[in-house]
User: Which sequence fits this backbone?
């Protein structure tokens, strides 16, 4: 099992630096006792109420990069304070990480109120995912209904082994817009076929294409 040690203190005073060193030494022993391979040790001196922390970003990136299964901390306040702590806990749970604390001698046990909040946050995200999937479905059905438009036939990159598609099919965007789909619906439809596009990207590219058409028309009139 791969793990990361995360140690934090709130200030840069000399005694706090000593506390950091002690945290790391204790957590290394704790991780060894748990049979975990430590792939990174992260220390930082920053307020726990602030989410804009370099060490925190490094922790989240490291979990993905090293396929980390466990995060070792002294206690839950090392991850953050107040709402910031809940936000960090939520992200770690989403990444599938087990949080092990030296204070509790094992997996972190949350207070009832914290567990409730995290459960609510997870359900909200679940609703958002289902809502987006439904919007994709609506967009595809609407596109196929309007004048028989078939995205599977018209999107030139469809069916290429599921590869991520960076290019934007501008003519298809124009065609969908002419069928009265919103930019959000167009983005959802294209996402359903593997295009990595946002509503803003669709809107921008559509406007660029319309400007190009205007320029072409002006040239042809001269």
Assistant:
């Amino acid at each position: 099992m791969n793990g990361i040690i995360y140690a934090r203190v709130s200030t840069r005073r000399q005694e706090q630096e000593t506390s950091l060193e002690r945290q790391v030494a204790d957590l290394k022993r704790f991780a060894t006792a748990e049979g975990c391979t430590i792939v990174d040790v992260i220390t930082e001196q920053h307020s726990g109420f602030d989410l804009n922390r370099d060490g925190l970003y490094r922790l989240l990136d490291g979990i993905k990069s090293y396929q980390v299964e466990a995060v070792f901390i002294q206690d839950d306040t090392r991850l953050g304070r107040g709402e910031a702590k809940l936000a960090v806990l939520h992200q770690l749970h989403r990444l599938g990480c087990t949080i092990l604390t030296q204070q509790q001698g094992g997996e972190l046990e949350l207070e009832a109120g914290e567990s409730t909040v995290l459960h609510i946050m997870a359900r909200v995200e679940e609703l958002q995912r289902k809502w987006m999937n439904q919007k994709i479905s609506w967009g595809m059905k609407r596109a196929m209904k309007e004048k028989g438009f078939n995205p599977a036939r018209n999107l030139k990159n469809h069916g290429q082994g599921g590869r991520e598609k960076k290019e934007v099919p501008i003519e298809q965007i124009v065609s969908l817009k002419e069928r009265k789909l919103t930019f959000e619906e167009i983005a959802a439809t294209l996402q359903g076929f593997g295009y990595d596009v946002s509503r803003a990207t669709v809107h921008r590219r559509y406007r660029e294409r319309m400007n190009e058409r205007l320029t072409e028309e002006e040239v042809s009139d001269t």
In short: The radius of gyration is 25 Å. The longest strand covers residues 37-45. Strands lie at 2-9, 37-45, 70-73, 98-101, 106-107. Confidence is low (pLDDT under 50) at residues 157-166.
